[in-house]
Amino acid sequence: MLPVSAGNLSTSLTMFYASSCNIKGRIPNEFGNLRNLLELDLSGNNLVGSIPTSIGNLKNLQRFNLSDNKLTGFIGDHICKLQNLGAIYLGQNQLLGSLPNCLGNVTSLRLIHLGSNKLISNIPPSLGNLKELIELDLSSNNMVGSLPPEIGNLKAVTHIDLSMNQFSKGIPREIGALQNLEYLSLRHNKLQGSIPDSFSNMVSLGYLDISHNNISGTIPMSLEKLQHLKYFNVSVNKLYGEIPSGGPFKNLSSQFFIDNEALCGSSRFSVPPCPTSSKHRSNRKKMLVLFLVLGIALVLVPITFLFVWIRYTRVKSDPQQADSLSTATTERISYYELLQATDSLSESNLIGSGSFGSVYKGVLRSETAIAVKVFNLQLEAAFKSFDTECEVLRSLRHRNLVKVITSCSNLDFKALVLEYMPNGSLEKYLYSHNYFLDIRQRLSIMTDVACALEYLHHGCSLPVIHCDIKPSNVLLDEDMVAHLSDFGISKLLGEDESDLYTKTLATFGYIAPEYGLDGLVSIKCDVYSYGIMLLETFTRRKPSEFEGDLNLKQWVSYSLPEAVMDVMDANLVTPMDHRLQKKLDVVASIMKVALDCCVESPARRTNMKDVVGMLQKIKIQLLAC
């Protein structure tokens, strides 16, 4: 173990090397006393625990190496205090959380090696401030989001490895500005779009790997200009068209192009030859297509106008023929279009299943991603669920409700076409090991849900009771904004009703006492369920985990306010966090709101208007942390 007394070494000590010495235990906080250290190397040991916040006291530190250990916890903001830091090596550990946004303020950084950890979140755009950065290694993590265009500001960088992550969307064209870049690996991500033509500007590039992604389009012929390119791997993508044959492509292996959609070219790449064509034939073909399109347009435009006019007059004369969601829809999508969009409801597109049916991801011809909720018509209750959702969603409009694009209904098929939520559900983020939400993200998501319920209970002409509030029904869009979904068992209250009876039961663990015992539902039942979900979100404990007389609500209430750390999700704070007490106070305040929501008596429960107000105040409190 590293002795605490190491912190009592001479303050004039400038270098501390203890690499590959089989040292175990934690890094003593007293290391922060060695204020004149220029280099600290503890790599290749068996160190555990988190990086001490006292490291931020080493203002002169230039090289920081803790790689190849068993460190956990977060890369805290205290790293950003090291304004003279030139190299940081934290790879091959078990570090969690996201990259500190303030890392972009350490403008002296030249080397960042954080590969083989458990980092999540995206790359902060502020990294674009690191004008002297030469190497950036974030490989083998769980990082998500899009690659920021600010990456093109790293003019000095020669080595970038972002492989083995979950990055999505397109490769920014700004990356082509990196004329000193020699090595770029983006393999094994979820990148989409095409290969930017700007890649041809990276004149120093010798190694480029974008294999195992979802890249589509063609390989730009301009890449033939890259004279130093020795390795170019685009295998396992969705590329098509001709493989360039000039310049560096003369010496590339056929293995670099396998498992694509429809590549063609030279036989040495083991692909079929491209169709022969001349410029003259190409121009003639374009003219023929143009005349054909004009001819079809001259015929179809009058017919289309006539058809629209007839349809308009019919709908106007018989409003009962309108779709059940006509006031809420902006377009109609046919049954056959839905089949095409979802690849005939293939299992590979299945993104969820529920009591009354299944949800599939689809992509329309307009390239719009959708979620298609298909009801299981073998269940009689599914018919009622479909009708209920249509009735309830017809007039609802709120940024925190999942948007219904349209419905599709015939004798054998009933479906709702919904806005696609690329980040899945709150349940996934709480319980999957590959995802993490910090305190601010969890509070923001639960505030979004509270706003949705405030609208349903107090902002509609007739109050709506959702009846099934739980994490799997909270969906997250690309910006991590929460949207409440699944109104299959919801209820509309009449003008003279404050509650009603129902035989439909919600999910066990979230059910209000009066709902479960007597079938009596009111907006206060949603408040109760919301309170349970708020507790679950910050404890990461499912209400169904508890047995006997103890439940989630009691377990938390017994520990507040003094022992909040015993019940909250341990991943939210670290013992060495210098803002620990403030964060504990914030979480205690959140849990107090949750307990106010789920008291036994419906009359004593708070309402969602007050919940929104209290959470907004806690947000301000959190900003001060």
TrEMBL record:
Q: What is its main location?
A: membrane
Which stretch is the leader sequence?
none
Binding positions for ATP per the UniProt entry: K384
Q: Known Pfam families for this protein?
A: LRR_1, LRR_8, Pkinase
PANTHER family given for it? OS04G0122200 PROTEIN, PROTEIN KINASE DOMAIN-CONTAINING PROTEIN
Localization per Swiss-Prot or TrEMBL = Membrane
Question: What are the transmembrane regions?
Answer: 288-310
What this protein is called in its record is Receptor kinase-like protein Xa21
InterPro entries the UniProt entry points to? Kinase-like_dom_sf (IPR011009), Leu-rich_rpt (IPR001611), Leu-rich_rpt_typical-subtyp (IPR003591), LRR_dom_sf (IPR032675), Plant_receptor-like_S/T_kinase (IPR051809), Prot_kinase_dom (IPR000719), Protein_kinase_ATP_BS (IPR017441), Ser/Thr_kinase_AS (IPR008271)
- Keywords linked to the UniProt accession: ATP-binding, Kinase, Leucine-rich repeat, Membrane, Nucleotide-binding, Repeat, Transferase, Transmembrane, Transmembrane helix
Q: Where does the Protein kinase domain lie?
A: 345-618
User: Has the keyword Magnesium been applied to this entry?
Assistant: no
